[in-house]
Amino acid sequence: MSKRKAIPLRLNEDIWLAMKHWAEDDLRSINAQIEFHLREALRKSGRLPKKGDSKS
Fold first, then answer.
1. Integer Cα distance of 22 and 48 in angstroms
2. Would you say 33 and 19 are in contact if contact means Cβ atoms under 8 Å apart?
3. Where are the domains of the chain?
4. For residues 33 and 23, is the Cβ–Cβ distance under 8 A?
5. Where are the beta strands (DSSP E) in the chain?
6. Residue 20 and residue 14: Cα distance in Å, rounded?
7. Within 13 Å of residue 32, how many CA atoms lie on the same side as its CB?
8. What is the pTM of this model?
């Protein structure tokens, strides 16, 4: 499993509530939901590093 980084994240309350409801619908935590959608956006844009790449 890859290393995980903890970061503070400030969100507008409206965004947080929308993500909370979306996460509940998908049976995920808000953190997992945010990470899922960030990963999807990175994958779609071609910016997600390939497995084995160690660019950090």
1. 23
2. yes
3. 13-44
4. yes
5. none
6. 10
7. 9
8. 0.77
